Amino acid sequence: MLRRAFFGLGFLFALAVLGAPLQAADDPATKIKNGVEEFLISIFVDDPEIDLLYALSVEPAGDWYQVLIQDMKVREQGVVEDFPIGDVTFLVKPEGEVDYRFKDVRIPEEFRAGSLAEGSAPTVLRIGLERLNGVISSETEELSELDFLSRNFLFDIEKPVEGGAYNEVHQNTIRIAEMSIALTTEMTGENAASQGVDFKIADLSVSASDQRSDFGIGELSADFDLATSDFAAESAKMTKVFDLFSEAEEVDDQILLQVLRTWFGGVDNTESLSGEFRLQDISYDDPETKFAMADMTISMDAPEAEQDLITISQLLSVRGFSLSKPGDPVAESGLKLLPRRWTVPFTLKRYPMAAIHAAYGETFAQLSSLDLLSQGSPVVGILQERMTEIMLEAGTIMSFDGQSIESDLVSATLDGNLQFDANNPLQLTGLVSAEIQGLMQLFEASQSVQDPQVAQQVMQGTMVLLSSGETVPGGQVPSVTNYVVEFKPEGAVFLNGNQVHPPPAAAQ
Q1: What SS3 class is residue 245?
Q2: What pLDDT score does 163 carry?
Q3: Which end of the chain has less Cβ packing within 10 Å, N or C?
Q4: Backbone angles phi, psi at 265, to 5 degrees
């Protein structure tokens, strides 16, 4: 039943992938009709228990062609009632030699399925489609433009309570006030292109009465920009990856190996890549846990990805973080140790992306089995070792400059640069400096904690940090404790000038 309920949503997005069948006839109307027919048949080609019933017509409408899929319904063996979808309409027209532009997609406002009388889950799916327009290639099945907007999305499912009274149900509901996707493609050369993707969800809420939990996101957004020197090759690669996943009855190691061979095969045509993923006003609430976060941002920027050695900048930023669990002695101690804000920039300098891409391609081509889905797979280790060798040869630098974390009592910063050790690629060399503010104030505050076990744990941990660093009393401001960690060749590690690994006795 759940599969039938999701069919409406899947069909909505699949209207954008009519693909290669549009080339099957001479006149546009027949091409379009054949393409829609083949697509609808392909949805259930591997499921003999399901039939799709509909009436299809394609008529000229000025420069466009009006497609009407009428009275569509899904019939499943062993189910008393058909799942009605209703009428679906959209306009489509050829654009250029291989592209087709579609617009004004209209679908039923709501899909309903199931009933308690059948012993199944009553389901309501409301997509709230307001806009779905775009351009698709009939050769590569790739979208070059997409403009999608829905409002007041609802997925609601009721589950009978096991052992409960008649008509007693659990209510699980997903609501989205607004969801939008925008894809643009600009040809910047004979075969070079720049693509941008913007995705946004506003006011998402998930409630589950059987788990007595509520989850919400004020806004989820993603923004990615990609420039490629060979748009046709990258489109063909994406199409093959999509086909491998869509045609597989089960995603196993062999399918994953084929996908990775496809993705890393040939030359990496990426010229630049940047993106940002952001979550705002996140909350989770159940009887055991309360969680909230005002903002989380993850970003990445590789502006000159076509160079042999590039710089990749990444950033994780979190603000307004809170977590509470009733009965947690540390949380109830009043110390407020949980970080409420942290910023974690990380930069790779002189990163050999093209060489690593080629090495991965060679590795996957030589493997007869990926064996990634089983425990103890050696493949991950092989890839890590190969990547380390290439980064060592390139002189890749890992920079941690500007990292910071902050709670109510304590804050810390971290700066440094590390490289792989030329004598031992499994070890690092370089210098990292850290500064912790407020350790002495934390030690004093821990003495007033009523739970003796919590007080002892905090005091012991604080004393270890204080004794390991060089503390400058702050007087009226929080104290500052400094640490300098030096990773030397051959594996020696020094903390503020003192060797800590291997221990001096062992080193002798």
Answers
A1: helix
A2: 60
A3: C
A4: -75, 145
Distance from C-alpha of 295 to C-alpha of 345, rounded to nearest angstrom: 16
**Residue in 268, 266, 269, 280 with CA at minimum distance from that of residue 231:** 269
Q: Is 367 helix (H, G, I), strand (E, B) or coil?
A: coil
- From the list 451, 214, 439, 219, the residue with the least C-alpha distance to 328 is 451
Classify residue 403 as exposed, middle or buried by CB count within 10 Å of its CB (0-12, 13-18, 19+): buried
d(CA 143, CA 16): 7
Q: Summarize pLDDT for 22-72 with one digit per residue, the tens.
A: 444 468 888 888 888 877 776 655 567 788 889 999 999 999 999 999 998
Between CA 110 and CA 401 the distance in angstroms is 52
Element (H, E) at 247: helix 231-247
φ/ψ (deg, to 5) at 77: -60, 135
Tell me, what DSSP letter sits at residue 225? E
Distances (CA, A) of 166 to 79, 173, 212: 21, 21, 21
Q: Mind listing the pLDDT tens digit for each residue in 339-374?
A: 999 999 999 999 999 999 999 999 999 887 766 655
Write the burial class of residue 139 (CB in 10 Å: 0-12 exposed, 13-18 middle, 19+ buried): middle
Give the residue among 203, 221, 224, 205 at the shortest CA–CA distance from 213: 205
**Sequential DSSP letters for 250-279:** S--HHHHHHHHHHHHSS---EEEEEEEEEE
In whole angstroms, give the CA distance from residue 470 to residue 480: 8
Which residues sit opposite 202 in a β-bridge?
178, 219
Burial class (CB in 10 A: 0-12, 13-18, 19+), 44: middle
Q: What is the C-alpha to C-alpha distance for residues 92 and 39, in angstroms, rounded to an integer?
A: 15
- pLDDT score for 180: 97
Residue reference for tokens 């299809």 = 56
Single-letter amino acid code for the residue at 426? L
Distance CA 117, CA 72 (A): 24
The upper half-sphere exposure of residue 153, i.e. CA atoms within 13 Å in the direction of its Cβ, equals 21
pLDDT score at 2: 36
Decide: helix, strand or coil at residue 421: strand
- Distance from chain centroid for Cα 31: 36
Mean pLDDT taken over the chain: 85
Residue 231 belongs to what H/E stretch?
helix 231-247
Which position has the higher pLDDT, 167 or 233? Answer: 233
Query: Phi/psi zone of residue 224: left (φ > 0), alpha (ψ -120 to 50 degrees), beta?
Result: beta
> How many helices (DSSP H) and strands (DSSP E) are in the chain?
9, 24
Task: For residue range 270-319, list pLDDT tens digits in order.
Answer: 999 999 999 999 999 988 899 999 999 999 999 988 888 999 999 999 99
